[in-house]
Amino acid sequence: MTTTSLRDITDRLDRLPSSRFHISLLVIAGLSLYFDSLDIGLTAFVFSALRTDWGIGPQAIGIIAAIGLMGFAVGSLVVGFIADRYGRKPVIMVCLLLYSAFSALRGLSPNIEVFSILTFFTYVFVGMESCTVPIYLAELWPSRVRGAFHGWMMGFFSVGTASAPLWALLTIPNFGWRWALFLTAPFACIVGLMRSGLPESPRWLYTAGRVQEAEAAVSSIEQRIIAQTGVPLPPVSAHAPTKEAPVLHVPASTILQPPYLWLTLMLWSSWLTVYGVFYTFLSVLPTLLSLEGYSIIKTFQFSIVIYAGFIPGFTFAGYFLEWLDRKYWLLTCFVAVAVFGTLFGFATAVWQVVTFAALTAFFLGGAGSSIYTYTPEIYPTQIRATAMGIASAWGRVGAILLLLAFGVFSVLQGKLALFLVSDVSLVISIVLVVAFGPSTRQRKLEDTSAPAPALPG
């Protein structure tokens, strides 16, 4: 079968049965998100340990966490341009290795200044990695299972988050926070090397003008699945043959022009809200619990239970995304985060603190999985990574602002400060999603994205 258009690529990929090939993509790419989130969660517990070792307070922790998120925002912002220009595979191979190196080097920090600088560069590559993996997988998975598979992909992220307090409990009290950072690097490097056998995205190859390579990539995937399943592939949907020239360049400014403008603003608001709350909650929860008077061991134990709420929140979101659609599950999660987060802020009894915090984690995970699935479906292949990266950067801007606000208001309001500030952002995002969020459930990427304008000449 010969590829003559992007629609040929789409039809051939979408009619493939779910197979070990798709599962291997999920596991190898998803493991990187595991280490990304493990590092983010572990850093929160390192902050708690630094309160004792270096005598830093909540305001300093908020500033250091904000510096890391600045690196995350920078990485998210630039990676889209790189991945749209040079491909998805090189980015996801290199970034995990560089992130692992910088993260481990933080364990050698002699003071808070060096630790902050290394944290900035660590999160530059975490930001690049976490934006590119969902794009890459969305371009390879069939549309009928894309939502569910994205949920399982984000399940790796949630398991990494939930593993962080357990990792911290096993390493920090016994070996110190430095070894807690050192020991993550070898595993992450192994996963980075495993990626060498992954294919490049055929969709990207085609829009980059590398049509023969796109044809070869699709054919290789088809042959691999035939060998795994032992049965012929389903026929490709019939349509009139077309001969189209690939649109090789679509400017990044397109995302702020019709028909994308309001979609973009809706997504930027959602990213700012979800990851503003998510990363602030993740970064300061151990500190909040210790400020409430709990011992470091109790803090770690409570955090294991609370962070476990992220696992079903991220993982099962894929099924809700296919059942309710992306828009309606995202709205449900926004409302629930506002309700349970505020109850957590007012909670005093241990069971209230743990229960409301775990429910907040569950719905934050659901919201995170929703926008990671939703965003790649809105934009065409030529600017998909760029748009995803910029939207993700807005999420980190939200986290920076909320962390800095938390550092100021926590002195007066404690843990309630987090949600007194975030509830305003949640309400704004709810209004924008209701007004402008489209339905994308079980539709091809080329159908859910508005037509990409070709440049004249």
Task: Describe it.
Helix content is 77%, strand content 0%. α5 (112-138) packs across α16 (350-378). Mean pLDDT is 85; it is low at 452-457. It is an all-alpha fold and 457 residues long. It is built from 19 helices and no strands. The protein has one domain: MFS general substrate transporter like domains (Growth Hormone, Chain: A, Up-down Bundle), CATH 1.20.1250.20.
Write a brief structural summary:
With 457 residues, the protein is mainly α. The chain has helices at residues 6-14, 20-53, 58-86, 88-105, 112-138, 146-175, 177-182, 185-194, 202-207, 211-229, 261-291, 296-308, 310-315, 317-324, 326-346, 350-378, 384-413, 416-436, 445-448.
Please report the number of helical segments: 19
Number of individual domains: 1
Order of helices and strands: HHHHHHHHHHHHHHHHHHH
CATH homologous superfamily label: MFS general substrate transporter like domains
Structural category: mainly alpha
Question: Using only CA atoms, what is the Rg?
Answer: 22 Å
Helical residues, percent: over 70%
Uncertain parts? 452-457
| Alpha carbon gap, first and last residue | 31 Å
- Would you count the extended β strands for me? 0
Indicate the overall shape.
Answer: globular
Portion in strands:
under 5%
CATH topology: Growth Hormone, Chain: A
Mean pLDDT: 85
Which CATH class applies here?
Answer: Mainly Alpha
CATH architect. name: Up-down Bundle
Largest sheet: none
